[in-house]
Amino acid sequence: MKVLKTLVILLLAAALLAGCAASPSSVVHSGTPFKLLVLNCGSSSVKFRLYEMESETLLAKGAADRIGVDGHLRFEPQNGGAVLDEDRLFPTHEEAIAALLDLLTSPGYGVLESLSEIRAVGHRVVHGGESLKDSVRIDGEVLKTIRDCISLAPLHNPAALAGIEACRELLGEVPQVAVFDTAFHVTMPEKAYLYAIPYEYYEDYQVRRYGFHGISHRDAARRAAELLGKSPEELKLISCHLGGGSSVCAVLGGKSIDTTMGFTPASGLPMGTRSGDIDPAMIGYLAENCDLEVSEVTAVLQEESGLLGVSGLSSDYRDLEAAANSGDSRAALALEIYHYAVAKAIGAYAAAMNGVDGIIFTAGIGENSAAARKAICAYLTYLGVRLEPEQKDSYSGATRISARGSKVAVMVIPADEELVIARDTLAIVRELPAN
Ligand code: ADP
After folding, report:
1. What are 272-304's pLDDT values in tens digits?
2. Rounded to 5 degrees, what angle do the CA atoms 415, 419, 425 make?
3. Does ligand 1 have an atom closer than 6 angstroms to the CB of 243?
4. Nearest-CA residue for atom 4 of ligand 1
5. Residue 434 — pLDDT band, cuts 50, 70, 90?
6. Can you give the residue ranges of every domain in the chain?
7. Candidate of 47, 362, 368 to mutate for ligand 1, largest count of ligand atoms within 8 Å of Cβ
8. What is the pLDDT of residue 296?
9. What local confidence, expressed as pLDDT, does residue 115 receive?
10. Distance of alpha carbon 208 from alpha carbon 85, whole angstroms
11. Is the dihedral of CA 262, 263, 267, 271 positive or negative?
């Protein structure tokens, strides 16, 4: 009898505990599918994705471009329905977001009965400064910090704020989460993030290396560890995010310890239109000798340099590969400069970590160009890097591309930053008390 009573008490306690444990996630598992919107607001564009999170199914995606210029809208429901692709005037981000939300429930293109089905919104926010170290639910305090960082990301943070504000207007009190490009890099040590300039500029003006592409580097490093069957803590990884914007990141024990982008995303590697690192004396020299304002020199370095500047042809890697293959020597030179810079960054981070277990290639160029990866890895044979002789341009999932005997694992890891934002958002909303 006593045994039976104890058993009943134990069973009741277990049921109670199970109930408590389940309560936070009841937000997610309450019967109706958890639909979540991801917004990526750039200076003149809004990209969106709508997911059903139980199965991580993409329900719709699209973008509004050329906001404030004229406007273009693309909306792609993933249920086989018609795609909308048309010019439409968007003076503001809010109008663009309103149009996208409208389409989500429209009879012709919609994938939702009502906007109330959207249970959370995740926003990509470029700059979270030094204080926002992780993805967070957006409240008054977080909004203030994003606003305080406007001077550090003058094109991007106002756009993200506009997106957050528009969602509050159009979707009411639905929880919103900010996922930052800078957050992954807050673990960098002082020796990596401080510039060798008077310390007061750091203290008074927050001039330091922040690093960007953090959402991509964090996810790439996590998935690389998974692919290698190791825990992130035991790995020295170098993540190469090579796209229109490019950066390399040293990830030691799962944490960013250095990255090539710095105070702004203009520095580090040469990119599509950005020069990357230059001699700081060049700015004064060009201003004086070319009769340019400092702001004009900055514009040249950000918008007319990089692959475009050297080739005089295009900022697009594919265009330059094609041109180089048909004998254009400046296109070939632009590519050579790019590969050399990436290889040097990998060498620097192998030194910073006193070794490297894995090199990751991700983003448009990293994921899609076997030629780029080969050209970069050709500089790295001293590290024991050896690629499989047969290389495809792209792979459908995370794939190891190094040869069996390679001392360093080389991997292609396709980036899906929106899904990372969706997962972060879900994880945070899941912990909110059900009301
Ligand atoms: P962003 O989001 O920074 O604009 P992406 O990650 O989309 O950049 O990368 C864009 C770059 O990737 C462009 O330079 C483009 O030419 C390059 N790219 C895309 N597909 C390929 C491919 N198949 N081969 C070579 N480069 C490619």
Report:
1. 999 999 999 999 999 999 999 999 999 999 999
2. 135
3. yes
4. 244
5. confident
6. 35-180, 230-416
7. 368
8. 97
9. 95
10. 42
11. positive
* Lowest mean pLDDT segment, chosen from 113-122, 146-155, 188-197, 288-297: 146-155
pTM of the model: 0.89
- Lay out the sheet containing 399-400: strands in order across: 255-259, 246-252, 236-242, 358-362, 409-412, 399-400
- Report how far apart, in Å, the C-alpha atoms of 401 and of each of 233, 297, 389 are: 22, 41, 9
For residue 204, give every residue at least 6 positions away whose Cβ sits within 8 Å of its Cβ, in sequence order, or none. none
Answer yes or no: is the C-beta of 369 below 6 A from any ligand 1 atom: yes
* Domain 230-416 in the same topology as domain 35-180: yes
User: Residues in the chain, how many?
Assistant: 435
Write the single-letter amino acid at 69.
V
pLDDT of amino acid 433: 82
Span 60-76, average pLDDT = 93
Q: Which fold would CATH assign to domain 35-180?
A: Nucleotidyltransferase; domain 5 (3.30.420)
The CA–CA distances, whole Å, from 312 to 232, 271, 328 equal 42, 14, 11
318 Cβ closer than 6 Å to some ligand 1 atom: yes
Q: Are 182 and 127 in contact (CB under 8 A)?
A: yes
For residue 244 and ligand 1, the question of a CB distance below 6 A is answered with: yes
Report residue 6's pLDDT band, with 50, 70 and 90 as the boundaries.
Answer: very low
245 lines ligand 1 (CB under 6 A): yes
Residue with CA nearest ligand 1 atom 12: 364
Q: Is the pLDDT of residue 77 over 60?
A: yes
Mean pLDDT value across residues 157-170: 94
Q: Whose CA is nearest to atom 22 of ligand 1?
A: 368
Tokens read off for 67? 């906001």
Which superfamily, per CATH, for 230-416?
ATPase, nucleotide binding domain (3.30.420.40)
What is 184-205 written as a DSSP string?
A: GGGG--HHHH--SS-HHHHHHH
Active site residue 424: no
Ligand 1 within 6 A of CB of 364: yes
Catalytic residue among 70, 148, 181, 424: 181
Distance of CA 414 from the midpoint of ligand 1 (Å): 12
For residue 245, the ligand 1 atom closest to its alpha carbon is 3
Q: For 364-404, what is each residue's pLDDT tens digit?
A: 999 999 999 999 999 999 999 999 999 999 999 999 999 99
Q: In the structure, what pLDDT confidence band is assigned to residue 108 with cuts at 50, 70 and 90? A: confident
